[in-house]
Automatic annotation (TrEMBL), chain A:
Compositional bias per record (Low complexity), positions renumbered to this chain: 326-335
InterPro entries: RWD_dom, WD40/YVTN_repeat-like_dom_sf, WD40_repeat_CS, WD40_repeat_dom_sf, WD40_rpt, WDR59-like, WDR59_mRING-H2-C3H3C2, WDR59_RTC1-like_RING_Znf
Family that this chain belongs to: Belongs to the WD repeat WDR59 family.
Any Gene Ontology CC annotation: vacuolar membrane
Chain intervals for the UniProt region annotation (Disordered): 323-351
Annotated RWD domain residues: 374-473
Protein name: WDR59
Coiled-coil parts of chain: none
Lineage: Eukaryota, Metazoa, Spiralia, Lophotrochozoa, Mollusca
Keyword Repeat annotated: yes
Alphabetical list of SMART domains matching this protein: WD40
Pfam families attached to this UniProt entry: WD40, zf-RING_16
Entry keyword set: Repeat, WD repeat
PROSITE patterns: RWD, WD_REPEATS_1, WD_REPEATS_2, WD_REPEATS_REGION
TrEMBL record, chain B:
Cross-referenced InterPro entries: Sec13/Seh1_fam, WD40/YVTN_repeat-like_dom_sf, WD40_repeat_dom_sf, WD40_rpt
GO molecular function: structural molecule activity
Subcellular localization: Lysosome; Nucleus, Nuclear pore complex
A Gene Ontology term for the protein's cellular component: lysosome
PANTHER family xrefs: NUCLEAR PORE COMPLEX PROTEIN SEC13 / SEH1 FAMILY MEMBER, PROTEIN SEC13 HOMOLOG
Protein name, entry field: Protein SEC13 homolog
Sorted UniProt keywords: Lysosome, mRNA transport, Nuclear pore complex, Nucleus, Protein transport, Repeat, Translocation, Transport, WD repeat
């Protein structure tokens, strides 16, 4: 499909004229006019003197003014015309911009109008009849990079400003019609759809092409994602196609154009390979009369102009209806008019017309053949025991050296002209150091492989096969690890076509590396309990720049700038994701950023030295060993203490004595003192009596709770969890804490029963939360159990109800309110029994008050304030976790014993009963709607309130006592339903 | 104060990006640009290579060990846009789950406190954060916070587990709240909270002037105060604190370094912060009794030396 290629010129911009016959190549020193039909001998040049490059050039789109083209050079626009060959005249200059003109575009509707935009933030419209000043100007805040007229409707053009697009109507004055935030990064190119006035495509630095509909500018219609910034994206004049040109980072890597079918944003339909450098510009030639093919003219930084024929096959891939595909495409290479000129000597010194091999695209399902050149570029040459010595496109040969044991074997693979479509490669061994049998066997294997891959590219399979065969023939017994194909990188271009049956398309598919932070190459991590793990670069590794790069994409330029050569230069490695760095340049790894600084040797010592260094580098990257430090002393944690501390609340003095000596062994003098102190304050003789009337308990003494409190505060600041938790283990036992928080002594306590006259269920909800707030530190269930037990014996059975919160559900009846001054306001409980009525009882109140006083006293006896209960639990948990990390499981569980248990969540099966009277589902024992006990005993026919059993099979049951009695004698259900309840064997006790 | 107890030559072919010990400190996992993860037995000073995990197609950026109650699990994230969870069964390691729902490099992965179950979070350069949870029967569900950080998310860290009814949410909340802090290329640190299964942005912390490279939520030892450390391309490390009563975070610049700071790690008791960055150095910072942050030592890894600055007393 490559039509031709011209190497010439110092041109930075290119444009094709409206007839499609000529192209102008504009450079700093010369402007060249090329006849595209005869690229070798029809050339007109105009030398110019300027220190500025021409940033863009465009031919007039109408044949009426077909001799005109405009160029933008620095701040100026120039208009040229050419009258006959050899004559290019400058017609006029248009000056108006104050900074470099970034783009220009002829109006497709008015022959006299040209638009230009510049980084000076102005977009000007010029009337070429009056070039002195712009006919119209539009200002924006940001400079513009592209200006493009709509191709369908007049008076509409778009400009791009960094990541935004603005649409303008010159009649509507200075403000844009629309504003579209299209990309996060700079937009490089914009192209209007050739057949729809509302659609356009933008290509951006962020590696995407987005499609927009101006009627719905909020969201793009579609996105093509590329691995590299997209320089241009232009619609094809046929079908629903799009051509994209990418900017490989650092202009290395892939310099291809991609052809897309807009029905499929995932993978392109074709790739144009050939340019050696970035493609600067591409344009379509006007389709010649009678010809079905389209021609794409590309100009690359490699200073070559190529013409690509887009034949009907490719057009069809883009959705163009081409009807019956004529066979003429087969012979395209011979139908080219200048084909015969190919061999003639170039007429111009600067010009070199090269014939390129071309293969007509025969499309195979699932796999597309590539030209030999492409195949050579893509082949993965890193194959075990096979070395690729030479890949020569011109002679169509590949030279390979294989290792068989210690012997080497040279193989030349030559590819016939029509390979891969017709013909298989030939094989020839040149340097034979192995016996004939081996050689014949190898030949056979290779031929078989080639035949198997007939009509497909087979170089890489051949090399693989060659390698494995050599391996199996190897006389050495040494075990060779053959590369496991499963583990080979899926992104490696080679594996894709064969494993997934797809074109290897590695560039598109990932987002930009500029968003990915430059990876850490050193770090430190606290792990487990007290270990610090560090990793990093070796001491010799120097950074490639003064500052550390920010993003992955910076890596490339830095490496380049420092002219550091990657250690392994694989000539044709095309993988975008080669080893590590996902940069456009395949063989840079993150390690390449760091170089060895070793002792400077005399440079004159020459090649040998550098070879040694390189070898050393490849063998040993700049990685320092991973180090593990013990930092537990920094953290005030001692494994020895954890292991040897004992916990024994029943004999605190022994415990303290032991722990004092343990603390002494690790040299923690403060802990020695602490344990002695603890022994003193926790002395048995200081144990307070149970009677509150015998004076304030020891806990209220300055050396009691206050002392502990200040000790705790100190160790909290030190974050010495070990000591904190041990203090809790001495003075705290979460398990036995079942009492309410101590009320303030002055507060009087009263319990009041009442049924609120206008009862409001929401009130209950709020009082419930108040309750929880008031209790704050205690799990609700414990609390309830506690309060309930305080209340009265008839309620005690409630406490054993499995679903305690159920009981707090609001009803209009039997609401009991318990009020305790201001600590919490209301507390309602649904009484269980219908007939249970609460009555005021003076004596009860007194009794209860005494009881509360007593618990308050008990609380004061504690050395640690129960208010901070949750903190203690956290210290204990944290310390238990550390012990666990140390592998001290017994000690860990020992500590966990002191954590006050939160009520376990209900897990498992829950049964609900349908009320036998009203058939409502009931949870609990009483039906909420009819107030009768919901579950009826099958034997005595009375409601069951206490223990009950029922059969899971038939659902019948009753009082446990009755059923036990019944089933002593019977097997069947007492209701007579016929169920063999005992055989069903599933009985579950329900309270 | 800090002593080397083991030094392991990992023989990775390219730069190492993370190294972590397991819960018990007996196994070391390292990951590298050479696309592999290596696991070493380092118990009692050993350094035996147990396994080499291959499966990523790009450099592996970060690792995370799960709590041993879930078995020996490692999560790894890579440039290849994947998160892989590896599991050891009878001494052999294999892939347990592969999460491929990110569109760009996954830069950070971390397991949630074990009380929440087997849950992990990962942040990607596609700007999103995924929270992946195991239902226990081998299936995994993922919640994605899309566009958590425009341009890209560089780091995620889970808040420590706080038992219900305790410190941070003494009232109302019966179930503990999952929180995540994340940092990204929008120079922001963001705090996310799970509410009825959905992740919502709770707070946006502005303070850095360049990409936030790492965030670390300090472990809690039972204090109501929450602390988060963040480091950035702007060479600064910031300590964010919340007193546990509201949603206000105050910040203090720990230090301005001479190069990018890209990694932070809190000690298990949350009092020492290890900072490391582009200069290949590690410094340890500690809060004094007066609440000031001081550098207590530099661990110069190149030489394997530790220079104590202030801890001689």
């Amino acid at each position: 499909m490559i039509y031709g290629c011209i190497v010439a010129f110092q041109a930075s911009a290119m444009a094709v004229d409206c007839t499609g016959q000529f192209a102008v190549l504009a450079g700093r020193k010369v402007m060249t006019l090329v006849d595209l039909d005869n690229p070798t001998d029809r050339v007109t040049k105009l030398t110019r003197q300027s220190k500025f490059d021409i940033s863009c050039v465009q031919w007039h789109p109408y044949p009426v003014c077909g001799d005109l083209f405009a160029t933008a050079c620095n701040q100026r626009l120039d208009l040229f015309s050419w009258t006959s060959y050899g004559n290019i005249n400058q017609k006029c200059s248009m000056r108006g911009h104050s900074r470099t003109v970034s783009d220009l575009d002829w109006s497709p509707f008015d022959v006299n109008i040209i638009a230009s935009c510049s980084v000076d933030s102005y977009t000007h419209l010029w009337d070429i009849r009056d070039p002195k000043k712009p006919s119209n100007s539009f200002q924006t805040v940001a400079g513009a990079s592209q200006v493009k007229w709509n191709k369908v409707t007049n008076n509409l053009f778009a400009t791009t400003h960094e990541g935004d697009v603005r649409l303008w109507d010159p009649r509507k004055g200075s403000s844009p019609l629309q504003y579209i935030a299209a990309h996060l990064s700079k937009i490089h190119g914009l192209d209007w759809s050739p057949d729809s006035e509302t659609n356009f495509a933008t290509s951006s630095q962020d590696g995407t092409v987005k499609f927009w509909d101006t009627s719905n500018p909020r969201q793009s219609k579609g996105v093509i994602t590329s691995g590299s910034p997209v320089w241009r994206a232009r619609y094809t004049p046929f079908g629903h196609g799009l051509i994209t040109a990418v900017v490989p980072q650092l202009r290395r890597g892939e310099n291809s154009l991609y052809l897309w079918n807009l029905e499929n944003y995932v993978a392109p339909v074709h790739q144009f390979v050939g340019h050696q450098d970035v493609i600067l510009e591409f344009e379509w030639r006007k389709q010649a009369e009678g010809l079905k093919d389209y021609h794409l003219v590309t100009w690359s930084k490699d200073q070559s102009l190529r013409i690509w024929k887009i034949d009907q096959h490719l057009q069809k891939l883009c959705g163009q209806d081409v009807g019956e595909i004529s066979d003429s495409s087969e012979s395209d290479s011979t139908s080219l008019p200048y084909e015969t000129n190919g061999s003639s000597p170039p007429t111009n010194q600067e010009m070199d017309f090269q014939r390129q091999m071309s293969a007509s695209p025969e499309v195979y399902p699932g796999q597309k053949p590539r030209t030999l050149e492409q195949e050579f570029l893509m082949v993965n040459v890193a194959i075990d025991n096979v070395r690729v010595d030479e890949l020569d496109v011109s002679t169509r040969t590949c030279k390979v050296t294989g290792m068989i044991g210690n012997n080497s074997l040279k193989l030349v693979i030559s590819f016939p002209n029509h390979y891969p479509i017709h013909g298989v490669p030939f094989f020839e061994f040149t340097d034979i150091l192995v016996d004939n049998n081996v050689m014949l066997r190898l030949l056979k294997v290779l031929k078989d492989t080639a035949n198997r891959h007939a009509r497909r590219n087979c170089l890489e399979p051949l090399l693989r096969q060659f390698s494995t065969t050599l391996d199996s023939l190897s006389f050495q017994t040494e075990e060779r690890i053959t590369p496991d194909t499963e583990n080979l990188p899926a992104f490696s271009p080679f594996y894709l076509p064969y494993s997934r049956g797809d074109l290897p398309f590695v560039k598109f598919g990932s987002r930009l590396d500029s968003h990915i932070p430059f990876p850490r190459t050193s770090g430190a991590r606290f792990c487990s309990a007290g270990y610090l793990v560090t990793f990093g670069r070796s001491k010799e590794a120097q950074k490639g720049s003064d500052y550390t790069p920010k993003a992955m994409s910076d890596l490339n330029s830095l490496v380049q700038k420092n002219k550091m050569r990657p250690h392994q230069t694989v000539p044709f490695n095309f993988a975008a994701y080669s080893r590590s760095p996902p940069t456009a340049q395949p063989d840079i790894t993150i390690a390449t950023y760091y170089y060895k600084s070793g002792p400077k040797k005399n440079r004159a010592s020459g090649k040998r030295y550098s070879a040694d260094v390189r070898e050393a580098e490849t063998k040993k990257p700049n990685i320092a060993p991973v180090k593990i430090y013990d930092s537990s002393r920094l953290l005030a944690l001692h494994k020895i203490l954890g292991e040897h501390y004992i916990i024994n609340q029943s004999d605190i003095s022994t415990m303290c004595k032991h722990n004092t000596s343990v603390a002494a062994t690790v040299g923690r003098k403060d802990l020695v003192q602490l344990w002695s102190l603890v022994a003193l304050t926790a002395d048995k003789r200081l144990q307070s009596s149970d009677d509150p009337d015998e004076g304030p308990p020891w806990g209220r003494h300055p050396f009691g709770r206050n002392l502990m409190q200040s000790l705790m505060e100190y160790y909290i600041k030190l974050r010495d969890v070990q000591t904190l938790a041990m203090l809790c283990c001495v003075f705290w036992n979460g398990q036995e804490l079942m009492a309410p928080p101590p009320p303030k002594p002055q507060q009087s306590i009263s319990v009041e029963y009442s049924t609120p006259p206008n009862y409001n269920p929401y009130h209950t909800v709020s009082s419930m939360s108040n309750l929880v707030k008031g209790l704050q530190t205690l799990p609700v269930a414990n609390k309830l159990a506690d309060i309930v037990s305080l209340l009265s014996p008839p309620l005690s059975e409630v406490s054993s109800h499995p679903n305690l919160p159920e009981l707090i559900q609001p009803t209009n009846q039997g609401v009991m309110k318990l009020k305790r001054s201001n600590s919490y306001s209301g507390f309602e409980i649904d009484t269980i029994d219908n007939d249970f009525k609460l009555e005021e009882d003076e004596e009860d109140v007194k009794e209860r008050q005494e009881q509360l006083d007593k618990t308050a006293h008990e609380n004061y006896c504690r050395m640690l304030d129960p208010v901070d209960k949750n903190k203690y639990d956290e210290y204990l948990r944290c310390y238990a976790n550390i012990l666990d990390c140390w592998g001290l499981k017994n000690q860990s569980r020992e500590v966990m014993k002191f954590v006050s248990n939160a009520p376990p969540e209900h897990r498992g099966i829950e049964f609900s009963v349908y009320c036998y009277k009203c058939s409502q589902p009931v949870r609990g024992s009483q039906c909420l709607s009819c107030k009768y006990p919901a579950f009826n005993c099958a034997i005595c026919h009375l409601g069951v309130k206490g223990l009950s059993n029922f059969c899971l099979a038939c659902g019948h049951g009753g009082h446990t006592a009755h059923l036990t009695e019944w089933f002593k004698r019977e097997n069947e259900c007492p209701t007579g339903c016929g169920c063999q309840c005992l055989k069903a064997k599933i009985h579950i006790s329900l309270q | 104060m800090v002593s080397v107890i083991n030094s392991i030559d990992t023989a990775h072919e390219d730069m190492i990006h993370d190294a972590q010990l397991d819960y018990y400190g007996t196994k070391l996992a390292t990951c590298s640009s050479d696309k592999t993860i290596k696991i070493f037995d380092v118990k009692d000073g050993q350094q035996t290579l147990i396994n080499e995990l291959q499966g990523h197609d790009g450099p592996v950026w970060q690792l995370a060990w799960a709590h041993p109650m879930f078995g020996n699990l490692i999560a790894s994230c890579s440039y290849d846009r994947k998160v892989i969870i590896w599991k050891e069964t009878n001494g052999t390691w294999g892939k347990l789950y592969e999460y491929t729902n990110h569109d760009s490099s996954v830069n950070s992965v971390i397991f949630a406190p074990q009380e929440f179950g087997l849950v992990l979070a990962c942040g990607s350069s596609d700007g999103s954060i995924s929270i992946i949870s195991s239902s226990g029967d081998g299936s995994w569900t993922a919640k994605k916070i899309n566009n958590a950080h425009s341009i890209g998310c560089n780091a995620v860290s889970f808040a420590p587990y706080v038992s219900p009814g305790a410190l941070l949410d003494p009232y109302n909340k019966q179930t503990p709240v999952k929180r995540i802090v994340s940092g990204g290329c929008d120079n922001l640190v963001k705090i996310w909270r799970e509410e009825e299964g959905e992740w919502k942005e709770e707070k946006k912390l502005e303070g850095h002037s360049d990409w936030v490279r790492d965030v670390a939520w300090a472990p809690s030892i039972g204090l109501p105060r929450s602390t988060i450390a963040s480091c950035s391309q702007d060479f600064r490390v910031i300590i964010w604190t919340n007193d546990g009563t509201g949603n206000d975070w105050s910040h203090k610049i720990l230090h301005k370094f001479n190069d990018v700071v890209w990694h932070l790690s809190w000690s298990i008791t949350g009092n020492i912060l290890a900072c490391s960055g582009g200069d290949n150095k590690v410094s340890l910072w500690k809060e004094t009794l007066e609440g000031q942050w001081v550098c207590i030592s530099d661990v110069n890894k190149g030489q394997g030396q530790v220079t104590d600055k202030s801890i001689s007393s």
